[in-house]
Design goal:
With 322 residues, the chain is of the alpha/beta class. It has helices spanning 18-28, 46-59, 75-79, 99-108, 123-128, 170-180, 191-197, 202-211, 233-239, 271-283, 285-302, 305-318, and strands spanning 5-10, 32-37, 64-67, 85-88, 114-117, 133-135, 159-164, 186-189, 214-219, 244-247, 264-266.
């Protein structure tokens, strides 16, 4: 396809953000990408950011506008963007605890030419609201998520079981509490702490480093009962050669996840089941490694950022947006 001049608005200034993975894949393909960092903190002077954003648009010759979490854009602002404009976000909106997240997305979404998002089970709901919605989750990043050799510096992360993510709701607290009752070495790597205390990029690079010294990674979403929605962690962790025991969500089989073949599921937030699986796979290294290898193969064959961007452009062409 022709090389495009793209304005990408969102968390593109954060090296380990999902948006940055998209940007890097676009650049790998030869597209020119101009990043416009957009804040995601409530109380920001959004009108000033919007004013500066439109100056960039008016002074450039862009073929495509990609917006991520641009919470300060009003419907009027989006209508004033006169080039092909799409939204690509990676968050949960339906069923999320705060109404503000649902509100700003619902306000914006009908005015984009096309919306891409991680909520695979909400297509009909969004279509009924007049939103041209297409499920498209973040994939694994080839720069970060790959097999790497062991290094002694990785030893600080050595553990039997790890969980990468914040314990910011009761579900995840219950998950971690159950593991802490086991006589094993459990470590919780909190993404946002790592982001603020380590050099840019190390946060995602650690996922592959963890695989050299960790045995089991646990997957537990903000909620596990919303069909079609799960976080990007399976793609990142399995793509980084980690063995995963994760919460089953309806629809995961459609993405190629197979229980006890390339990953291992526990069901209906049953953390006693999770604990039994942890005990079993800690004792069965050969079986664990076989599943891990199959999971790595699945991600690198079907769920890398190159596959996501292929789908992104295929949809834009099908919809006659570009």
């Amino acid at each position: 396809m022709d090389k495009l001049n793209i304005l990408y608005v969102g968390n593109t200034h954060v090296p380990h953000a999902s948006e940055n993975s998209v940007v890097r894949e676009l650049i790998r393909r030869g597209h020119n990408v101009v990043n416009f960092p957009y804040p995601t903190v409530a109380g920001t002077n959004f009108p000033l950011f919007n004013e500066n954003m439109f100056k960039v648009i008016n002074n450039g010759k862009f073929d495509l506008f990609i917006g991520s979490k641009c919470m300060g854009l009003k419907s009027y602002d989006i209508k004033q963007i006169k080039i092909p404009k799409v939204s690509w976000v990676f968050d949960l909106f339906q069923g999320y605890i705060t109404w503000k997240r649902r509100e700003w997305y619902a306000r914006q979404a009908p005015h984009w030419d096309c919306c891409f998002g991680a909520e695979g089970g909400q297509v009909d709901l969004y279509k009924d609201k007049g939103i041209n919605y297409h499920p498209l989750k973040c994939g694994a990043d080839p720069t970060w998520h790959k097999k790497i050799p062991y290094h002694k510096d990785h030893e600080i992360m050595r553990c039997d079981v790890s969980f990468l993510g914040g314990l910011y709701n009761q579900l995840r607290i219950n998950m971690a509490s159950r593991i802490n009752c086991m006589n094993i070495n459990f470590k919780n790597f909190v993404g946002y702490q790592v982001r603020s205390t380590m050099l840019p990029g190390v946060y995602m690079e650690q996922i592959s480093e963890l695989a050299t010294v960790g045995k089991i990674s646990i997957g537990c979403n903000y909620r596990n009962d919303i069909p079609g929605y799960w976080s990007k962690r399976p793609y990142e962790l399995m793509g980084g050669n980690n063995f995963m025991i994760q919460a089953h969500v309806d629809g995961m089989e459609d993405d190629g996840f197979k229980d006890k073949k390339n990953t291992v599921f526990f069901h209906k937030d049953n953390f006693d089941e999770m604990a039994k699986l942890i005990e079993y796979y800690l004792e069965n290294e050969e079986e664990r490694n076989k599943i891990k290898e199959a999971g790595y193969k699945l991600i690198h064959e079907k769920h890398m950022m190159e596959h996501r961007v292929d789908s992104f452009f295929a949809t834009l062409k099908k919809e006659n947006i570009i």
